[in-house]
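Entry 14. Structure prediction run on the chain below.
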Amino acid sequence: MKNGVSVTKVVAIVLLMVFTLVGCNDPFGSEDDKDKGTAPQIHQVILGYYNSTNGQFSPTYRFAIGERADALISASDPDLDMATLTTKTTHVDSRNADTYTIRIEGQPQVDMTYLAYMEIIGPVGEWKVEFQITDREGNKSAWYSRNVTVINKS
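Output returned:
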């Protein structure tokens, strides 16, 4: 070769560059490869009735059709970016399910307690109610489940 560089040397230089890049963080990685923060965590969900007049919460897992069920949801996210709450309700016998997602308004501190509500429309029977929080980066908490009994209004 006239320029004094053999094909073997060029291949060796290219392999050295590839091994160097593999050994460290890829500076050319896409945003999808980068850390997207911490997923929210749901620590506890208590279902019941909230009296806004006196600020009292009465826990129960038995509701009548036509009632409003309240949920106190204790959750945390160190990134302060909880964005949505998804509630999934499944009638145990029929396996019919509904899913609702609402926007969470603000997270001024790591540990938060949110109040959400559901209208009980039935049918009568056992229900599984699940909650999941998603942050602005798309990180999701694990599903948190509670079982409730729905009865006819007396």
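The chain has one domain: 36-151.
Filed with the rest of this week's runs.
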